[in-house]
Design goal:
Elements (H helix, E strand, L loop, with lengths): L1 H21 L2 H13 L4 E3 H7 L15 H14 L4 H9 L49 H5 L21 H10 L7 H9 L3 H4 L10 H18 L10 H15 L4 E3 L1
Antiparallel strand pairs: 1-2
Bound molecules: fe (iii) ion (2 copies).
The site of one fe (iii) ion has 5 residues, from loops.
């Protein structure tokens, strides 16, 4: 048991180390251009969810189950609190971007084996990395951190939208949803895009990049974070079929059909 836990911990540290070492502006630009030029794959939404049966998050010390359970647990916690339907749906979808492993490879940290450009807390590239980040001892490995000051390539209050954030499941799903017609509110997009930016929503960093829109949206991301973090249980939901039926109704309200282009 003890040894087992140590193994997990080593995996977490390694994932963070690699992310700190290889995530920089050049890497981001490469990943974005690969994403933009790749022919998008048409997939049924529930088939996409099922792909998370094969994905256990290497950066998460609290979740040993495949990620599909985390998404249902998070959504069910919001449902229990009578959250708005779009919010429940956002909880259900928020980590679906981790299916990006099907397009990925070990070299770019986008596979089941190498997850450093899929999972983990994100940080803003092209500037200093705050030392309130997890494992700050790895910051010196980062090329942008060595090269730039606090503002780096950005200007004061430029807005998070202008910032290049370490590549991962947040940005992937944000872009995916933007490419698929739907009526999700802006808050849903905002949660999905920035939920791993703990430095910003939980550590009070990056306020010099915040614009008014970011300031207004921050409490919504913080509200969501409760359902992301405190809903985690290492037991599998038994009624996945029923849950799919319930969430299908909400999904259909916001999306025209069940096939999305990923
Ligand atoms: Fe996430
Ligand atoms: Fe999550």
């Amino acid at each position: 048991m003890f040894r087992n836990y140590k193994d997990i911990e080593q995996k977490i540290k390694e994932t963070y180390k690699m992310s700190r070492k290889y995530q920089n502006i050049e890497f981001y630009d490469l990943m974005l251009s690969q994403y933009n030029t790749r022919e998008k794959k048409k997939m049924n939404i529930w088939d996409a969810f099922d792909l998370l049966n094969n994905f256990i998050d290497n950066s998460d010390p609290d979740m040993e189950l495949p990620n599909i359970y985390h998404l249902f647990q998070s959504a069910e916690a919001a449902r229990k609190d009578n959250a708005e339907d779009w919010f429940q749906l956002t909880c259900l979808l928020h980590d679906l971007g981790k299916i990006m492993y099907i397009f990925g490879n070990d070299d770019t940290g986008t596979s089941v084996k190498q997850q450093w450009a899929i999972v983990g807390d994100t940080f803003i590239l092209g500037c200093q990395i705050p030392d309130t980040i997890v494992f700050p001892e790895y910051n010196i490995l980062n090329k942008d951190h060595q090269k730039y000051d606090n503002y780096g390539i950005y200007s004061r209050h430029c807005g998070l939208e202008k910032c290049k954030i370490s590549w991962g499941h947040d940005e992937f799903l944000y872009r995916t949803l933007k490419n698929n017609e739907n009526t999700l509110p802006p808050q849903a997009y905002y949660i999905i895009r920035y939920h791993s930016l703990y430095l910003w929503h939980s550590k009070n960093e990056y306020s010099h990049f915040e614009n008014i829109y970011d300031t207004i949206m921050k409490p919504t991301v913080q509200r969501f974070n409760n359902y992301d973090l405190y809903s985690k249980e290492n037991t599998k939901n038994k009624n996945i079929h029923e849950l799919k039926e319930y969430y299908q109704k909400i999904f259909s309200k916001y999306f025209k059909n069940n096939d999305l282009y990923f």
